[in-house]
């Protein structure tokens, strides 16, 4: 229904009925009638709606209508219900476009499967170390750095997306039969924080805990253990340390894609440093404001590229035209190629 599509797009844009009405020059009661399918907007109004909501007119007639249920959020307490709806509807738009190109190309997407050898049940926090390494072994990752976590997850059947414009949102995981697992994180995060979010949400897919264990803390521990296994932490830091050099940890951040604070947690969790030293370091980070932005050059963020590769494949094979390609990538092709040129120094 067109009305539902208008409501989804309005919520994704973070606009009230009155905000949208003002933008397109109609009353807010008219917008409400459109959204409740009590009235149908004219072609001229639909065009103005598309411009105001930054969508293609075809969006309102899209056949896909995915129902989403967010399993777990990583967010600040200040994230309002309005912005939760904004997040959900931005994700809905993205995943509908994703499913559209997969259907057009007739792609059989690999289902995400938890390896049968994995003992998911956690009785104590230290069990997570073995669980994380077992998953690495099943995925043939060894113990070294994971160069591109985003690509790895998509290869395993987990769709990864980025959304922007919401400072109070970090990441979430969505479980749906139609789509398979979806992990979404904020676009403008440093790469180490982004990777930690992805690994954290992977933990939610993997871990089952006893009532006495906090699931969020368990997912945190899993994220660190998956990104840097116990063996490598000991190899890099040694079995016992009385102090840690922050520049040493910064270099390790760039080797493994785990933040300096993440390395401090790994050292504390594995009893390489004392709780007292860890607390002292975290106090320093808080005092300096480094808990929000760590010192030194940031670890580069990862960008999901599977959706774009599928669109370019379909466009190259003339399965879709430029208008459809622009709709699926979510922006004009001129803008897409301009961004590609800047990012990859690509000129043809």
UniProtKB/TrEMBL annotation:
Q: Which InterPro entries match?
A: Cro/C1-type_HTH, IrrE_HExxH, Lambda_DNA-bd_dom_sf, Rad_response_metalloprotease
Question: What would you give as a GO molecular function for this chain, any one?
Answer: DNA binding
- The HTH cro/C1-type domain sits at 6-60
- Check the record and name the Pfam families matching this protein: HTH_3, Peptidase_M78
Family membership: Belongs to the short-chain fatty acyl-CoA assimilation regulator (ScfR) family.
| Protein name (record) | Zn-dependent peptidase ImmA (M78 family)
Q: Which organism is it from?
A: Thermosediminibacter litoriperuensis
The record lists the lineage as: Bacteria, Bacillati, Bacillota, Clostridia, Thermosediminibacterales
């Amino acid at each position: 229904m067109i009305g539902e599509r208008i409501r989804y797009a309005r919520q994704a844009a973070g606009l009230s009925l009155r905000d949208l009405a003002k933008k397109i020059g109609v009353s807010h009661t008219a917008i409400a009638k459109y959204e409740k399918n009590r009235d149908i907007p004219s072609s001229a109004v639909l065009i103005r709606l598309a411009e105001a909501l930054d969508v293609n007119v075809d969006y309102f007639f899209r056949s896909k209508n995915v129902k989403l249920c967010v399993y777990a959020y990583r967010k600040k307490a200040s994230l309002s219900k309005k912005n939760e709806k904004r997040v959900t509807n931005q994700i809905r738009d993205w995943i509908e476009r994703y499913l559209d190109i997969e259907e057009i190309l007739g792609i059989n997407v690999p289902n995400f499967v938890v390896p049968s050898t994995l003992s998911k049940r956690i009785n104590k926090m230290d069990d997570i170390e073995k669980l994380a390494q077992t998953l690495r072994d099943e995925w043939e990752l060894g113990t070294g750095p994971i160069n591109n976590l985003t690509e790895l997850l998509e290869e395993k059947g987990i769709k990864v997306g980025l959304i922007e414009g919401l400072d109070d949102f970090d990441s979430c995981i969505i479980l749906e039969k139609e789509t398979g697992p979806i992990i979404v994180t904020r676009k403008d995060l440093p790469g180490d924080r982004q990777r930690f979010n992805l690994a954290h949400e992977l933990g939610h897919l993997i871990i089952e805990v006893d009532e006495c264990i906090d699931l969020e803390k368990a997912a945190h521990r899993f994220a660190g253990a998956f990104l840097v296994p116990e063996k490598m932490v000991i190899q890099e830091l040694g079995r016992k340390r009385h102090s840690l050099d922050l520049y040493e940890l910064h270099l390790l951040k760039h080797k493994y894609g785990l933040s300096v604070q993440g390395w401090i947690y790994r050292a504390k969790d594995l009893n390489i440093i004392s709780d007292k030293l860890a607390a002292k370091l975290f106090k320093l980070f808080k005092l300096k404001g480094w808990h929000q932005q760590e010192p030194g050059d940031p670890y580069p963020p990862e960008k999901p590229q599977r959706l774009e590769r599928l669109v370019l494949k379909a466009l190259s094979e003339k399965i879709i035209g430029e208008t459809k390609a622009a709709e699926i990538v979510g922006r004009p092709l001129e803008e897409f190629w301009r961004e590609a040129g800047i990012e990859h120094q690509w000129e043809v």
